[in-house]
Amino acid sequence: MSLTEQTYIMVKPDGVQRGLVGNIVKRFETKGYVCRGLKLFSPTKDLLEKHYADLASKKFFPGLIEYMNSGPVCCMVWEGMNAVKEGRKMLGATKPADSALGTIRGDFCIDVGRNLCHGSDAVESAQAEIALWFPEGLQKWSDHSATWVYEDAPAPAAAGGGGGASKAGPGVGGNGKDIPEKYITYSDTTILGAKMPELNTLDYLQKGDEAKDAVSKGKTMVIFFWGKYAKGDYKLVVHMSQLAKRWPAVQFLGISCDAERGDAAKLLTKVGSSMPEQGIESFEADVPMAFDPEKKANGRFKRLAMVTSVGPGYCMIIDGTSTIKWQEQFTSSYFVADGQFEEQLRRFTEGEDLIANGPRPEDEEDEEIACDVGGDEFDAFADGDGDDY
Ligand code: IDP
Ligand code: MG
């Protein structure tokens, strides 16, 4: 059960005109959901048609678009346990006559074509709608009431899931602590500025269309490596999945370092289960995930980076022109929240200069290998074919 599930709620023009914005905000807030986005907005017809694309063949479609275009809407993203389903419950059924009293539609409207509000109907459609309506990204902040809302509230900075203002700066990670030198990404790291290699050999285990679409459209991407064998890095997969929710305009992609497709696929069957030994309450992997046959894609990254191995925990930010803008290595004890990755992602998507850690100090050549080599000690034994040496 994810505490970071998000839903897209929209107060339609009639709802805005009739003063329902505050009412709806108050319901979500007092129930305990966290607001990740809120804006009054006048959408184009094109955007509305995209939003309602699945209804394009309906007779009422032109009327629906016209009504939606008759004034500003209020766009919201609410986050929390079961946000999608609970959000729908709070709004009521599509037809006001079927909506229970106490719901927005049940209380405040009569006609289906004037039903005041919109709420995502599934986690997947919520993510697509959030990307559509909030291309600028969402607000991240720690909810100080979390422990009053959930029995098992996450500690805000623990394990990269909580968000909050980043303290990251040169040599300093998102948790405000100095980054151990071996994990600092220096500006002269070889892979920075290189062009991302072809990903056409990947064999997608899930959400392949999403990833291929992003590549063909030149979306900003985050690519991270993982492995079924690298248990200590399962947390990274969870953290990347949570980051993906916080940065819906960015396309995430996880590439497996496993030698066997079956192993890689097996990890994905663990979604939703708890992994107490890894300190994971509920395993998440809600992004495109691919097996890498013969580690071909891995080999291309390895050659670009000029390192002996690219292993689980190796993460990159890649811009719309396929240029690798940022790279960081996380491990079973050095987490996303300890590093600069999310702050770099924020700066990148908001058009700010990235944090620069300067060139690698000259007297540290021994450390170079420790930094660039895949962070997982298991990696050398990954496929046993000696390819990694
Ligand atoms: P939802 O808003 O409850 O998810 P959908 O089936 O996705 O319902 O339909 C989207 C919107 O289209 C509805 O909120 C409503 O405004 C409009 N709509 C749906 N069915 C009808 C209809 O039969 N006549 C007029 N408008 C409709
Ligand atoms: Mg709908």
Keywords:
binds inosine-5'-diphosphate; binds magnesium ion; alpha+beta; 4-stranded antiparallel sheet; 389 residues; 30% helix; 6-stranded mixed sheet; elongated
Written account of the structure:
The structure is a single chain. The chain is of the alpha+beta class and 389 residues long. It is 30% helix and 14% strand. The protein has helices spanning 13-17, 21-31, 45-51, 61-68, 83-91, 104-108, 123-133, 146-149, 208-217, 234-246, 261-268, 296-305, 341-349, 365-372, and strands at 6-11, 34-41, 73-79, 117-119, 203-206, 221-226, 251-256, 289-291, 314-318, 324-329. The protein has a six-stranded mixed sheet with strand order 5-8-7-6-9-10. β7 (251-256), α11 and β8 (289-291) form a beta-alpha-beta unit. Mean pLDDT is 90; it is low at 157-163 and 370-389. Inosine-5'-diphosphate binds at residues 55, 60, 64, 94, 112-113, 115, 118, 121.
Radius of gyration of CA atoms, rounded to a whole number = 22 Å
Continuous helix count: 14
The structure class reads alpha+beta
What is the CA-CA span between the terminal residues? 41 Å
- What's the number of extended β-strand segments? 10
Biggest β-sheet: strands ordered side by side in the sheet: 5-8-7-6-9-10
Helix and strand pattern: EHHEHHEHHEHHEHEHEHEHEEHH
Broad shape: elongated
Strand content: 5-15%
Mean pLDDT: 90
Q: What summary fits the major beta sheet?
A: 6 strands, mixed
Bound molecules: inosine-5'-diphosphate, magnesium ion
Low-confidence stretches: 157-163, 370-389
The percent range for helix content is 25-40%
